[in-house]
Amino acid sequence: MFTAADQLSQLPHLRREIGQLQRRIETLRDQVVYTADRVQSSQRQFPYRAGTVRIVGLDMQHSESRRYQQQIAGLLAVLRQRQRRLLQLAAALEKQIAALPDSRHRQVLTLRFIEGLTAAQTAQVMDYSHRQVDRLQKEAAAQLRR
């Protein structure tokens, strides 16, 4: 079983992995072949004016499109799984962070790991130096290990 400190270190890695999966999905979506067609149409109600509608969709006759769609479906399943894991982990850690007695420790851990800010951004938000934020983070992590 992971300790709270180990779980804290997992949050940024999970966020990064989710970002990588999203980029892979977008890359595959860009490679899918689409087809378009124009069809004659009319309005549903009187006066039934004729028009043309352009329909765009996946070209499933193209073998690469089918393969890309299968890869995308698989990656989307993995992405949803990682997102659920991230939410569960963050919720569990928020409870442990809330139990810390020192407000500064709670703020540092929440900003750094739950909200995903860098140490420099956390220092700016808290109006502390980077060194103070590092020290508070180490103290808070040590308290979570106890």
TrEMBL record:
InterPro entries: RNA_pol_sigma70_r4 (IPR007630), RNA_pol_sigma_r3/r4-like (IPR013324), WH-like_DNA-bd_sf (IPR036388). Gene3D superfamilies: Winged helix-like DNA-binding domain superfamily/Winged helix DNA-binding domain (1.10.10.10). It holds the Pfam family Sigma70_r4. GO terms for molecular function: DNA-binding transcription factor activity. GO terms for biological process: DNA-templated transcription initiation. Residues 103-145 form the RNA polymerase sigma-70 region domain. It comes from the Bacteria. This is RNA polymerase sigma-70 region 4 domain-containing protein. The lineage of its organism: Bacteria, Bacillati, Bacillota, Clostridia, Eubacteriales.
